[in-house]
Amino acid sequence: MGSDPLNTFHAARDKSIFLAVSFIFWFSHFIYVPILSPYIESIGGKYTFIGLCLSSYGLMQFLFRLPLGIFSDLLKLRKPFIIFGMIISAFSCLGFALTDSLGWVLLSRSLAGLAASTWVAFTVLYTSYFTNQEIHRAMGSISFVVVFAQLLGMSVSGYIVDVWGWHAPFWIGGMISSIGAVLSLFIFEPKDGIHREPIKLKDLTSVMREHSLLKISLLSILAHSMIFTTMFGFIPTYALTMGFESSDISFIVFSFMIPHAVATLFCGKLIVPIFGKWLSLTMAFCLSSIFTLFTPFIETKGWFCIIQGLNGFSLGLLFPLLLGMAIESIPHQKRATAMGVYQALYAIGMFAGPFFAGILNSYMGVQAGFYFTGILGVVAAFLIFVWHRKELPYKIFRMSSGS
């Protein structure tokens, strides 16, 4: 028997609405990210305060991501959490737009972190639209939408500021996320909800004792510290001190984000089969560390963009690799718990990196944050070497001998 055309239409419509809401969700989060640190500096915020604001986004996710996921599982409902996330996103953007108060800036960025904590509900509901055989395609679709929204939002940010002023990205983000909040009311969720076994305390404690998960989570904390201190943190501020205009920030974003996205495609298909997982991680951390440490010594705009592109590619290799390695050794029945723990833990990096870099920048200048971030990459590479010191030299020797 053929499929019902009406049901096929409804299924396609449900997926389209969901992807539109997901795009709006991340677009409104990232439309102001490149100009956030320069904006806070322009209204009198010191580097320590900028670091505190940037880090509040990760802190809120560390505190709320796992509890919201568990609460959603207990209720067997996802749609209310998605609507809540969209509304909080709108409040966050409008909080930035309506005031120049540093206190409101901190509150607004914290609300953005709370909103981002609801993303787990998005992914669970979207995968319910697909059969088990289609799950990977579903995650591919939503991952593309997330990356595209981030790239587009960050790309237009500097241009919008140049034309309409500092508050314009926040107003646009607020209006678009308000539309997204209305659109989220039309997201489809089955009347009886989506059943997924909530995380149990015994599963949580057993997963937390998994050495492989904790090692990967620590490396992910360092990787997230690096990206949230550089491109999602102080790179735009530093670029403006170099002589870039606010409209030029788009070039820096493109330089970083396009290689960053391309690296995710190359990682699993080309890099890992040649070098192996651990050597690939080591090289990616080392390269990112080198490019970050080089950043304060660059004096021309062209080279600055090239270095950001190389760093974007290096960091782009890390995240999909770490994501896969986080759960590969975990039993299937505990993987949802492991992913929740992993996501909560790497949010520490989103908090700690900008926070400590902001303190260092205040006392030693903005270059200090890049030295600090570069050292984090060296620490990560050193940890991998210690954990796999027998395996890595053997792998390098085999490659150099051509065998």
From TrEMBL:
InterPro entries: MFS, MFS_dom, MFS_Efflux_Transporters, MFS_trans_sf, Tet-R_TetA/multi-R_MdtG-like. The keyword Disulfide bond does not apply. The keyword Transmembrane applies. GO terms for cellular component: plasma membrane. Its main location: membrane. Residues 14-392 form the Major facilitator superfamily (MFS) profile domain. GO terms for molecular function: transmembrane transporter activity. SUPFAM superfamilies: MFS general substrate transporter. It is found in: Cell membrane. Signal peptide: none annotated. It is a multi-pass membrane protein. The chain crosses the membrane at residues 16-35, 47-68, 80-98, 104-126, 138-160, 166-188, 216-239, 251-271, 278-297, 303-323, 344-364, 370-388. Keywords: Cell membrane, Membrane, Transmembrane, Transmembrane helix, Transport. PANTHER family: CHLORAMPHENICOL EFFLUX PUMP RV0191, PURINE EFFLUX PUMP PBUE. This is MFS transporter.
